[in-house]
Design brief:
The chain has helices at about 10-15, 20-30, 40-50, 55-65, 75-90, 95-110; strands spanning about 5, 35, 70, 115. By secondary structure, it is α/β, with parallel strands linked by helices. The protein has one domain: 5'-nuclease (Rossmann fold, 3-Layer(aba) Sandwich), CATH 3.40.50.1010. It has a four-stranded parallel sheet with strand order 3-2-1-4.
């Protein structure tokens, strides 16, 4: 199955209209014809970072409930591999969410991870992670459900 993995920075940029890469992420979302996969660690980070933006954390969870963001990753099954990734890339450092996404990329044999952050250039056993670089800024909330708008 073709899929695109998304990290915290992608979700935050997509929901925060004032974020520097909001328009780019929104455009990319409209052009993606594949499921958007992520992990619970990314959802938790996204909700935390968007906590001061009214309605944004709820929008993240609404998009999980609607199946727009899918969470096929089970940390209890993949904890050993995630620990290996965290140790292997401790110089970056790869946090829990980053490491879960790398393990998910290996599982789904994809290098399509949309990120704006630290794991750019990590190589999985099967693929190279794709990255768009940027920084977070404040602004207003948007919705993932506005695909293509």
């Amino acid at each position: 199955m073709k899929c695109v993995l998304v990290d915290t920075s992608f979700i935050v940029a997509l929901l925060d209209k004032g974020e520097q890469h909001h328009a780019t992420c929104k455009k990319l979302l409209g052009s993606v014809g594949a499921p958007l996969l992520t992990c619970e660690a990314v959802i938790a980070e996204s909700c935390y970072l968007l906590r001061n933006l009214r309605g944004a954390a709820d929008a993240v969870l609404a998009n999980v409930a609607a199946g727009i963001l899918q969470i096929p990753f089970d940390l209890s099954i993949n904890a050993g591999r995630v620990r290996e990734i965290m140790r292997q890339y401790s110089n970056i450092p790869a946090n829990l969410a980053d490491s879960c996404l790398v393990a998910l990329a290996e599982e789904y044999d994809t290098g399509l991870i949309q990120i704006l952050g630290s794991i750019a250039g990590i190589r999985t056993s099967r693929s190279v992670i794709y990255s768009t670089l940027g920084q977070r800024e404040a602004g207003g909330a948007d919705s993932l459900q506005q695909r293509g708008s």
